[in-house]
Amino acid sequence: MYRFRLYGASEREALVKILDQCFQNWSREWLGGAAKLVSSLTTADHFRLDEKVNWRGMSYHGATLAYSSSTDFSKRLAVETGWCDSVVARKASLVWDEAICDCIDALARQILLLTSDGSGTGMFNVSEATEINDNSTWRMHGAGYLWYGIKVDQEWLAFILSPQVIDALFVPSLPVRMGALNNRLHAVSNGICKLELIAGVAEVSIGELHTLSPGHVIQLDKVIGQPFKLHTTEGREVGNGYLAACGNNKAVQLAK
Amino acid sequence: MSQQITEQMPMEETSVKPVKLQQISEGQGQGQNMFGGNLSLIRDVKVKLEAVVGGTELTVGELFDLKNQSVIQLNASTNAPIDVRLDGKVIARGHLVVVGDNFGICIEEILPVNE
Asked: What is the ipTM of this complex?
């Protein structure tokens, strides 16, 4: 679960703060420079993922802002992830047009609306595929990308953050005060932790459960490409990772 | 709208009294079970199933040494089925499949209630 903290009163300022966390010193240059660059750009500077979805946007140091007139957005998660990679590599110098600049404001507004508690210091928890409302979603990509999408009229806006940016954004929880134990962790270092890898969960009715038989398929909530959760047997999530094989056994490679 | 209703339904004098509850003593009831075994009453109640790939044991020291990309071997062979748990109890086993964009479990075995 990642936490994004918003500061400041104005929407623009809030977004700048977010991006500050994303890119540190890069964000002001990005936002501040966008308006100037737009006037000097031609449409040839805009790029497309393909003709069907008409993706346009910009990537900068691991974060991507994009929009699409496609309504078939949900099927494209994997494509986006790959696209984000390639865009970062090849298109880092491209900037959006006026419409996308407007989208920044829309995005900032939407983020604020969804996250602010009114004081401008709202905290928003992002978990896997958290549905915020009908028109916006936060999603984790399989490869560790975080995707925020909002629907404005018929257009989707996507804000895609790379794993590196997410790490920079991640606000670690305050260290637990452990008093005297803090310096004596070695005292418990031989204690045993039992861990379990959870492939996902499914909600079924008791009626469905009653009819369950060999051959039935239960769909889990976990989307292909998402890491599995690693829990203690007490139910506390300690991380997540991807299922793999290690010798003759199953294994998990930690992603977080 | 509420104003219209008010106009159509003039206030009448009504008496208002507190509700008094009859004292009864705890008991098991009498006769046959009223709902015993009637699955249709609860068939729409949702329960959460959990698909457990496998587990392992680490020491706290090992846990604290884990890093991004660390590999943890599980106590389950690659061919071992996945446990489907309900409320902490394994009720079925199956193997991992892909269902559309999601993972899924294809049930191979339903476990007896007492397992």
From this structure: 0.76
**Pairing between β-strand B89-99 and β-strand B102-110 as defined by DSSP bridges:** antiparallel
Strands (E), chain A: 2-5, 56-60, 63-68, 123-126, 130-133, 136-140, 146-152, 155-161, 192-205, 217-223, 228-232, 237-246, 249-254
Q: CA-CA distance, A71 to A152, in Å (whole number)?
A: 11
CA distance A117 to chain B (A): 32
**Between B12 and A238, whose confidence is greater?**
A238
Q: Where are the domains of chain A?
A: 2-169, 192-254
Whole-number Å distance between alpha carbons of A137 and A101: 20
Q: Residue type for A178, please?
A: M
**Rounded Cα gap, residues B108 and A213, in angstroms:** 8
**Cβ–Cβ gap B73/A214 under 8 Å:** no
Question: Could you report the per-residue pLDDT of A151-207, keeping only the tens digit for each?
Answer: 444 444 555 555 554 554 444 434 444 444 455 556 667 778 899 999 999 999 988
User: Contact A63/A19 with Cβ under 8 angstroms?
Assistant: yes
Q: What is the 8-class DSSP label of residue A237?
A: E
User: Does residue B29 fall inside a structural domain?
Assistant: no
How far apart CA B70 and CA B49 sit, in angstroms, is 28
Q: Which residue of A has its CA nearest to B59?
A: A192
Find the residue in B nearest to A227 (Cα).
B103
8-state DSSP, A27: H
pLDDT digits (tens, 9 = 90+) for B57-111: 998 888 888 888 899 999 999 999 999 999 889 999 999 999 888 899 999 999 9
- Chain B residues lying within 8 Å of A221, measured CB to CB: 102
Pick the CATH number of A192-254 from 3.40.50.150, 3.20.20.30, 3.30.360.10, 2.30.330.10: 2.30.330.10
* A127 compared with A216, residue with greater pLDDT: A216
Taken in order A36, A42, A47, A53, is the CA torsion positive or negative? positive
Global pTM?
0.47
